[in-house]
Amino acid sequence: MQTQVAIIGGGPSGLLLSQLLHVRGIDSVVLERKTKDYVLGRIRAGVLEQGLLALMEEAGCAERMHAEGFTHDGTLISYGDEMFRIDFARHTGTPVMVYGQTEVTRDLYAAREAAGGRIVYNVEDVVIRGVDSEAAHVTYRVNGEARRVDCDFVAGCDGFHGVSRKTIPEDVRREYEKVYPFGWLGVLSETPPVNDELIYANSERGFALCSMRNANLSRYYIQCSLEDSPEDWSDDAFWAELKRRIPKDQVEKLVTGPSIEKSIAPLRSFVTEPMRWGRLFLCGDAAHIVPPTGAKGLNTAASDVHYLYHALWEYYGNGSEAGIEGYSAKALARVWKAERFSWWFSSVMHRYPDQSEFDLKMQRAELEFLGSNEAAQAAMAENYVGLPY
Ligand code: RFL
Ligand code: PHB
To answer: Is 161 among the residues known to form the active site?
Structure first.
């Protein structure tokens, strides 16, 4: 098989890149390790920045998102029974959209299929070869049969556990990592959301988040131990713990019901540098991970896709390699800012096992300052709605 860009990974990064390239007449092949149903079964991000919305529009995939997504002009932050609001509209004039990653991915699959895009599922043993030469290609197996794609470039969109990052030689690659000593237990339930905006809650018993997907689908998270497994948490135990962590007036409104999904995600900050090696580019979770507290993972993947798509468009349009040369530095400059915001917001909102009385006072002071200071709220709002590309 021959293509211009071989894309490893059919998650949101890979599909969005493939569809945007298609709009500009650039051919790609997507190689995905799992099935489409498996990818669509993963419940992940819920909050989309304007930059991602604009890319979905440019990709011709925004119709259902605009019809079914919810625009949010602010978010709530609580500590104990105190609660304040960060007003995105007033501080930035920019809202965010609540529309699940599952739906984004579903819309991208539909667009790729409608355009006859080539997506190969169930690929195994993907090996990226020759990206430091003129003869880039990818070998893999499907149903035990060896196959090969010859290409100009390879986009590594295969997430944190993929092969792309590890293709960059160890003496070239630098990795920066912080692993947090807790996880998030997430529950999806067919109940109306407790509130019409998200609530990020700091409580003595640990962090909680009240989020949503639509008028009758709620997504809740509580900070949990890394030793826990979802089976340790009955629905009743989950709801009881959530109620202990959110303000009393919210507890009275909370509608509980059976969970339809329950999972635990570890929290990690991670960046790899550089994001390009020869003809290989890393995009999204393949290059960096943020803790979900700032809702930045998918949105940072989208900004990578934006820079890479423009670099490739420029290359195929007028032969300029400037975008390709500058990709890693440009993407990383924005990535590190999203890392900082996610790390800061995580540190303010969670209980850490080794926190001292002094640390707790600092956390409280940080929240009281944020709750009362316009400049701090403006900085939070700017970061939350997404820094410019
Ligand atoms: P993905 O989604 O991991 O997709 C990578 C794809 O590559 C495939 N793959 C391979 N394919 C071929 N060969 C190989 N060797 C392969 N290895 C892997 C995988 O099967 C997969 O289909 O990465 P991508 O596309 O970069 O997208 C990134 C986002 O998924 C991620 O950043 C977000 O989900 C993070 N995240 C959130 N981000 C937000 O912006 N807002 C949020 O509210 C938010 N909440 C979350 C999250 C992530 C979570 N988890 C479980 C990690 C909440 C959770 C619980
Ligand atoms: C979600 O709805 O899954 C969600 C929302 C905001 C976050 C993280 C996850 O910060």
So the answer is: no
